Amino acid sequence: MRIHRTLALLLGASLATLATACGDDAVQTITTPAVGARIKFFNFGVNTPGVNFFAGDQKITAITSTDTVESTTGTASGLAANGGSYSAITPGQYTLTGRIAAATDKNLAISTVSTTLADGKAYSYYVSGIYNTTAKTAEAFVVEDPVPVETTDFTGAYVRFVNAISNSTPMTLYAKNLTTGVEGAIGGPVAYKSGGEFVKIIPGLYDLNTRTTGSTANAINRTSVSFTVGRVYTVTSRGDITVTSTTATTRPQLDNTINR
């Protein structure tokens, strides 16, 4: 297993202690309050090359190989950087980029977003859209992660939906509880480059699907997703909505990542 390293912007800010794991369901453990802003990165563009993520000229994420030399793989298409965990960053205005990790076109920016990161808030940066192999560009966007304030109420889990499919129409996420058989919407329709609100649900095992407004047909499916009490999750659609293959890497899929 490759080791995922956070290259955080310190600049006088004390960092939360993070425990990371591989996969899109990596769990972070925060032992001290986070200082400043926090951001996580996703390479959800279709056919995009592996990238490292930067804030200005400061590299925030990279992958270390077994010989301690930075890997030229970067965060591959369809994956979250840093095991899906947040990186601490000093609040302020930034130009955030995803840059090619390979030796060819090394550090060429394929996606760029200029944004302001506020103190005490969390964000997610998504490389999205369909990669233009001629221009070597992809789209990107940033959403705030308004994670519910942690309380002593551990009766539910929280879930929200982000739409990172550029050729989709607005979609609503539905979750069907496999114990009760009850299905419900997780918020309302979410357009491309947008995220819905976090919705409290009963912890358990769920089948997930998305539907466009006015349709009863499922656009994207994912089965047997577990939502644990006290946790906060973001379910994100990625891929090419026109692909009908059930095995193609470019097919529309639902990613599930823990925010807390």
Task: Write a structural description.
The chain is mostly beta strands and 260 residues long. The protein has 2 domains: 3-144, no CATH class; 157-258, Domain of unknown function DUF5300 (Immunoglobulin-like, Sandwich). It is built from no helices and 20 strands. The protein has strands at 3-6, 37-43, 51-55, 58-59, 61-64, 79-80, 87-89, 92-100, 109-117, 122-132, 137-144, 157-163, 171-177, 183-190, 194-195, 199-201, 204-212, 220-227, 232-238, 253-258. The strands form 5 sheets. Strands 2, 6, 7, 10 and 11 form a 5-stranded mixed β-sheet that branches. Strands 12, 15, 16, 19 and 20 form a 5-stranded mixed β-sheet that branches. Strands 4-3-8-9 form a 4-stranded antiparallel β-sheet, with no helix packed on it. A hairpin with a 5-residue loop joins strand 13 and strand 14. The protein is globular, with a radius of gyration of 18 Å.
